[in-house]
Design brief:
This protein is of the alpha/beta class. It has a single domain (5-170), classed as Metallo-beta-lactamase, Chain A. Helices cover 23% and strands 28% of the residues. The protein contains 5 helices and 12 strands. It has helices at residues 34-44, 60-63, 66-72, 92-101, 138-146; strands at 5-10, 15-20, 26-29, 49-50, 52-55, 74-75, 78-80, 106-108, 112-115, 130-134, 158-163, 166-170. Strands 1-2-3-5-7-8 form a 6-stranded mixed sheet, with helices on one face. It has a 4-stranded antiparallel sheet with strand order 9-10-11-12, with no helix packed on it. Strands 4-6 form a two-stranded parallel sheet. Strand 1 (5-10) and strand 2 (15-20) form a beta hairpin. The longest helix is centred in the first third of the chain and has 11 residues, at 34-44. It is globular. The protein starts with a strand and ends in an 8-residue tail after the last strand.
């Protein structure tokens, strides 16, 4: 098996993960500290390309560096948590608008998605590297939004990266309701 590299950066209250797949695709899950993110990307992606950027939910400590990434790197695809519910007094909507203005493919994830970053489809490539994304289901969001229990952590996308027998979960700030 070719090398899979995973960098989990402690950025204070949150984490950011940068993944380089065996096919040299770069995936970023959440982006907070610009200096740390840039340092790792300069080491592993000197060409300035990011295959997939995932923002797990609309808390500032999970997306603050996205604007800088959009300026400094060629980002091929973005997946974000649905934002039509309360996103707080943040720049989350501005980030969404900027991604749209740059015509980067954007997906608002509610439900399940399975990706093969290095190519392939299920089941032929079921032993290859794949990334599963689980977003909040719309009906639960609707119910939570109408209650006093809702907070943006309920929007968290949960990701699971699998490569052969190795598997790792990136939970954002998922709550029990997720």
């Amino acid at each position: 098996m070719d090398a899979l590299e995973i960098y989990v950066l402690n950025v204070g209250q949150a984490d950011a993960a940068i993944i380089r797949t065996p096919g040299d695709n770069v995936i970023i899950i959440d982006a907070y500290d610009p200096a740390k993110i840039k340092y790792v990307l300069n080491q592993i992606a000197p060409g300035g390309e990011v295959s997939h950027l995932i923002v797990t939910h609309p808390h500032r400590d999970h997306y603050l560096t996205v604007s800088k990434l959009l300026t400094d790197y060629d980002i091929h695809r973005v997946t974000v948590a649905p934002f039509w519910y309360y996103a707080g007094k943040s720049g989350y909507h501005a980030i969404i608008n900027r991604i749209h203005a740059q015509q980067i493919p954007l997906r608002f994830l509610a439900g399940y998605e399975r990706n093969y970053p290095d190519g392939g489809t299920y089941p032929e490539y079921s032993r290859e590297l794949y990334l599963e994304l689980l977003g909040p289901p719309n009906d639960i969001l609707k119910d939570l939004h109408g209650s006093k229990a809702f907070n943006p952590n309920h929007l968290s996308i949960i990701a699971r990266l699998t490569y052969g027998k190795f598997s790792m979960v990136f939970a954002g700030d998922a709550q029990m309701e997720n």
